[in-house]
C-alpha cells in the first residue's frame, strides 16, 4: 500500500529539481562564515528617499494601503513603470496591459515559464545561468537546451573581462529548432557580470525573429553597469517588442531585495497569459512596498540622467567596490574576471588548489568542494561557478568561484584581510 501510495503522489515535474545550491551554501555561510560574499544581496541600506517613502506610507492616514490593491499591480506603480519604460523604449505603454507587478523577478520568471512552456517545448538557456531557469523550465514540462559563453584569453597579460566570454554564433544558431519556444536572456548576466553588446543582442534577435521564438529577458541588473558600458534592452531591437517579456526588480534597482517587488513589461498578447498565471497563484503583492517603489520611480523619472539620480550614483559606488575586490583578489593570486555589470565577479582559484585536498573519484565539482572548504576553514563564503551550469557541464568550468561585492566597505576590507592572511600562509615554507 505504501509503495502504491508513493507512486500515486509522486510529482513527476518536480523530479530532479529538488536540489538547490542556496539551501546548502546559505546554511554553511550562516554556520561558518566571518564574511559572506556568497548570496547576492547588499548589506547596506536602501536609499534614504525610499525608506522615508515607506515610513510615510506606514504612518500616514491612508489605511487602505494596508489592504489589497489591484491584483496585477498597484495603480500608481504600473502607471509610473509604464511612463518610465515607455521613455526608455521610445513607445507608449498602457499601464493596465503592458505592465504587471510580481512578487520579485523570481515570480515573474516562474509565470513566464508556466504560461508559455508546454510539454515538448525547448527553451534555450545561455550558460552560465541564474540557477532557477533550468528547474523552472522542467517544472513547466519543457526541455532546457544549453549554449555556453566561451572564454577567450585576454591579450597582453591583462585581467580577463566578462566581455571575453562570448557566444559562438554558429553554435547558438544550431540550438534553434522547430521545438524551440523561447530563449532566456540575462543581461547584465549573473554570475559573470557580462553585459551583452548590441552585436550579440542583434544575433539573438535575428534568430528569434527567424524561428518565431519568444525572448524572456531577465534585466534585473539593468542599472548596474560599469565603465560606461551601455545596457541595451533587446525589446528595443527590430522585431523584438512583440516577442519579448522584460523582467525587472525593485530589489536590485533600489537595493531592497527583501521587499520582493518585481515586474514584467511587454505586449498585451504575452502579458495576458502572465496575468492568468499570477491571478491563480500569488494573486497579489504587498501594497505598501508597491506604493513606496512607485514613489522611488517617480523621483528617478524627475532626476533621469542627472547626477543626483540613484540610478547614476549606485553604479558609481558599486564600481569602486568592484575595483577594490578585483585588486584584493588579484594581489593574492585569485585571478578575477572583471565584470561589466551586476553585483558579482568570478575568480579563477587555480593557484589555490594546493590548499584544498582532492577527493579521488568524487562526482562533486572541484569549485564546490573548494568553496565549502574555504567557508569552513577561512570563514569566507562564496558560491561555486559550477552551480550556474547544467549537470552535464558542471565540471567544464570548475576552477572559478563567484563573489558578491555589493557590500559595505568594512565587509570588503574584512574579506581582503582574510585573503591577505591566506596569502601569507600560502607563501610560508
TrEMBL record:
<keyword id="KW-0456">Lyase</keyword>
<dbReference type="InterPro" id="IPR015422">
    <property type="entry name" value="PyrdxlP-dep_Trfase_small"/>
</dbReference>
<dbReference type="GO" id="GO:0070189">
    <property type="term" value="P:kynurenine metabolic process"/>
</dbReference>
<dbReference type="GO" id="GO:0047804">
    <property type="term" value="F:cysteine-S-conjugate beta-lyase activity"/>
</dbReference>
<dbReference type="Pfam" id="PF00155">
    <property type="entry name" value="Aminotran_1_2"/>
</dbReference>
<dbReference type="GO" id="GO:0047316">
    <property type="term" value="F:glutamine-phenylpyruvate transaminase activity"/>
</dbReference>
<comment type="subunit">
    <text>Homodimer.</text>
</comment>
<dbReference type="GO" id="GO:0016212">
    <property type="term" value="F:kynurenine-oxoglutarate transaminase activity"/>
</dbReference>
<keyword id="KW-0963">Cytoplasm</keyword>
<dbReference type="InterPro" id="IPR015421">
    <property type="entry name" value="PyrdxlP-dep_Trfase_major"/>
</dbReference>
<comment type="similarity">
    <text>Belongs to the class-I pyridoxal-phosphate-dependent aminotransferase family.</text>
</comment>
<keyword id="KW-0808">Transferase</keyword>
<dbReference type="InterPro" id="IPR004839">
    <property type="entry name" value="Aminotransferase_I/II_large"/>
</dbReference>
<dbReference type="GO" id="GO:0005829">
    <property type="term" value="C:cytosol"/>
</dbReference>
<dbReference type="GO" id="GO:0005739">
    <property type="term" value="C:mitochondrion"/>
</dbReference>
<protein>
    <recommendedName>
        <fullName>Kynurenine--oxoglutarate transaminase 1</fullName>
        <ecNumber>2.6.1.64</ecNumber>
        <ecNumber>2.6.1.7</ecNumber>
        <ecNumber>4.4.1.13</ecNumber>
    </recommendedName>
</protein>
<feature type="domain" description="Aminotransferase class I/classII large">
    <location>
        <begin position="35"/>
        <end position="415"/>
    </location>
</feature>
<comment type="pathway">
    <text>Amino-acid degradation; L-kynurenine degradation; kynurenate from L-kynurenine: step 1/2.</text>
</comment>
<dbReference type="InterPro" id="IPR015424">
    <property type="entry name" value="PyrdxlP-dep_Trfase"/>
</dbReference>
<keyword id="KW-0032">Aminotransferase</keyword>
<dbReference type="InterPro" id="IPR051326">
    <property type="entry name" value="Kynurenine-oxoglutarate_AT"/>
</dbReference>
<keyword id="KW-0663">Pyridoxal phosphate</keyword>
<dbReference type="GO" id="GO:0030170">
    <property type="term" value="F:pyridoxal phosphate binding"/>
</dbReference>
Amino acid at each position: 500500500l505504501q509503495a502504491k501510495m508513493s507512486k500515486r503522489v509522486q510529482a513527476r515535474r518536480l523530479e530532479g529539481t529538488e536540489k538547490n545550491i542556496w539551501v546548502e551554501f546559505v546554511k554553511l555561510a550562516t554556520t561558518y562564515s566571518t564574511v559572506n560574499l556568497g548570496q547576492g544581496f547588499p548589506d547596506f541600506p536602501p536609499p534614504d528617499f525610499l525608506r522615508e517613502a515607506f515610513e510615510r506610507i506606514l504612518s500616514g492616514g491612508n489605511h487602505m494601503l494596508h489592504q489589497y490593491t489591484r491584483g496585477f499591480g498597484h495603480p500608481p506603480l504600473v502607471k509610473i513603470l509604464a511612463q518610465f519604460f515607455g521613455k526608455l523604449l521610445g513607445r507608449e505603454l498602457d499601464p493596465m496591459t503592458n505592465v504587471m507587478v510580481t512578487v520579485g523577478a523570481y515570480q515573474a520568471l516562474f509565470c513566464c515559464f508556466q504560461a508559455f512552456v508546454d510539454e515538448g517545448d525547448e527553451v534555450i538557456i545561455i550558460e552560465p545561468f541564474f540557477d532557477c531557469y533550468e528547474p523552472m523550465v522542467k517544472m513547466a514540462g519543457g526541455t532546457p537546451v544549453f549554449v555556453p559563453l566561451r572564454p577567450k584569453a585576454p591579450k597582453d597579460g591583462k585581467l580577463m573581462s566578462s566581455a571575453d566570454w562570448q557566444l559562438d554564433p554558429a553554435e547558438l544558431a544550431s540550438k534553434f529548432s522547430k521545438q524551440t519556444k523561447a530563449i532566456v536572456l540575462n543581461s547584465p548576466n549573473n554570475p559573470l557580470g557580462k553585459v551583452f553588446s548590441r552585436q550579440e543582442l542583434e544575433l539573438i534577435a535575428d534568430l528569434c525573429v527567424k524561428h518565431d521564438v519568444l525572448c524572456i529577458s531577465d534585466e534585473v541588473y539593468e542599472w548596474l553597469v560599469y565603465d560606461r558600458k551601455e545596457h541595451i534592452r533587446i525589446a528595443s531591437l527590430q522585431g523584438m517588442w512583440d516577442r519579448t517579456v522584460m523582467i525587472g526588480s525593485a530589489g536590485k534597482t533600489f537595493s531592497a531585495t527583501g521587499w520582493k517587488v518585481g515586474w514584467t513589461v511587454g505586449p498585451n498578447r504575452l502579458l495576458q497569459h502572465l496575468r492568468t498565471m499570477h491571478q491563480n497563484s500569488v494573486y497579489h503583492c504587498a501594497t505598501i512596498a508597491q506604493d513606496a517603489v512607485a514613489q522611488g520611480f517617480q523621483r528617478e523619472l524627475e532626476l533621469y540622467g542627472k547626477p543626483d539620480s540613484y540610478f547614476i550614483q549606485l553604479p558609481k559606488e558599486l564600481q569602486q567596490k568592484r575595483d577594490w575586490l578585483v585588486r584584493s583578489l588579484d594581489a593574492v593570486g585569485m585571478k578575477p574576471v572583471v565584470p561589466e555589470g551586476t553585483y558579482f565577479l568570478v575568480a579563477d582559484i587555480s593557484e589555490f588548489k594546493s590548499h584544498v585536498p582532492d577527493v579521488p573519484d568524487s562526482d562533486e565539482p572541484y569549485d564546490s568542494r573548494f568553496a565549502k572548504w574555504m567557508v569552513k576553514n577561512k570563514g569566507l563564503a562564496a558560491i561555486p561557478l559550477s552551480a550556474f551550469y547544467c549537470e552535464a557541464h558542471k565540471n567544464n568550468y570548475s576552477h572559478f568561484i563567484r563573489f558578491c561585492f555589493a557590500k559595505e566597505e568594512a565587509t570588503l576590507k574584512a574579506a581582503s584581510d582574510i585573503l591577505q592572511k591566506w596569502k601569507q600562509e600560502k607563501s610560508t615554507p
